[in-house]
Amino acid sequence: MVIAKEVKGMFKRHLMMLIALLLLFTWGLSGCAGGASKVKIGEVTRSVFYAPQYVALEKGFFKEEGLDVELQTTAGGDKTMTALLSGAIDVALVGAETSIYVYQQGADDPVINFAQLTQTDGTFLVAREEPGEFNWSELKGSEFLGQRKGGMPQMAGEFTLKKNGIDPHADLELIQNIEFANIAAAFSSGTGQYVQLFEPQASIFEREGRGHVVASFGTESGQLPYTVFMTKQSYMKKHKDMIQKFTNAIYKAQVWVGAHTPEETAEVIAPYFKDTDMDILISSVKRYLEQGTYAKTPALQEDAWNNLLDVMDSAGELKQRVEIGSVVNNEFAESAVQASSK
């Protein structure tokens, strides 16, 4: 009798444990079905240059698509690509040239561009001294604080200098050994007569009297798939639905920015620039809008892609020309645009 009771007790305990596990499993499935899909983005820097991304977050466009987006800043293209390849992030917002570097290395799992955010260079030429009427020839013999070798800002910068009759490696002292995140601080402390800066840093330096914006590399270098959302091919194949929803949200943000004033956009993105005054945010957004920096749709254009290849080739960073279809998938961008027009 005692043994029978013990067996009965053990059976009852096991049955209760089994029921509990089944309930937990059911609740887990329910939570996954009803909850948002988690997506980790790594942005190459924090800049007004990426205003539509912050609009997508703040206006709830990602949430509308059922996505829970976590944003982190991984300063520098090399660090951002390392984070993507290692799986530390799911999607990278970085220059399209990084996907070409991975492709040139013969990667088994290439990185695919699927949604363009910016379509011009986002840097400005900032002079330490206030010039009269600026001429590019003034850079000859100067000390120029550039960007990281092989990065899109540096390549577009060199492309622009050559276009204006300046050999960046012979006609001036080109400084390229400073970390991306420290370039503004280096110029502020006295390094260089000229520097290449993104917004809002360029506007901040102007207001504080530490520099003067004299030219736009975005205007000079033409249209480029400058900053693009990309992911590994393997991730894209497993998460096509998520990539589509992500692209839908970005397109909604692009349309929103195109339809609103710099003041309205600056107000929305202000939480991402808590140490930046509103007038600086407004002037930064206005500059980018005026030069057509923000892409109107997520699709990468072939003529802009070919311009990118020309820029890379001029910088000596292109082993061979890479066809746009090798590392670009416009399917999601085209679907996003078509869906919104219905």
Q: Measured on Cα atoms, how large is the radius of gyration? A: 24 Å
CATH fold assignment of the largest domain: D-Maltodextrin-Binding Protein, domain 2
What share of the residues lie within helices?
40-55%
Report the span from N to C terminus: 74 Å
Would you tell me the overall average pLDDT? Answer: 89
Shape: globular
Order of strands, main sheet, comes to 2-1-3-10-4
CATH class of the largest domain: Alpha Beta
Pfam families: NMT1_2 (PF13379)
Subcellular location: Periplasm
Family: Belongs to the bacterial solute-binding protein SsuA/TauA family.
Protein name: ABC transporter substrate-binding protein
Structure overview:
By secondary structure, the protein is α/β, with parallel strands linked by helices. It folds into 2 domains: 35-120 and 224-340, Periplasmic binding protein-like II (D-Maltodextrin-Binding Protein, domain 2, 3-Layer(aba) Sandwich); 123-221, D-Maltodextrin-Binding Protein, domain 2 (3-Layer(aba) Sandwich). It is built from 16 helices and 10 strands. It has helices at 2-34, 51-58, 61-64, 77-86, 97-104, 152-163, 183-188, 201-208, 217-221, 233-238, 240-259, 262-269, 278-290, 302-314, 324-327, 331-340, and strands at 37-43, 67-73, 91-94, 111-118, 123-127, 143-145, 173-175, 194-198, 212-216, 227-232. The strands form 2 sheets. The protein has a 5-stranded mixed sheet with strand order 2-1-3-10-4, sandwiched between helices. A 5-stranded mixed sheet has the order 7-6-8-5-9, sandwiched between helices. The chain is globular, with a radius of gyration of 24 Å. The termini are far apart.
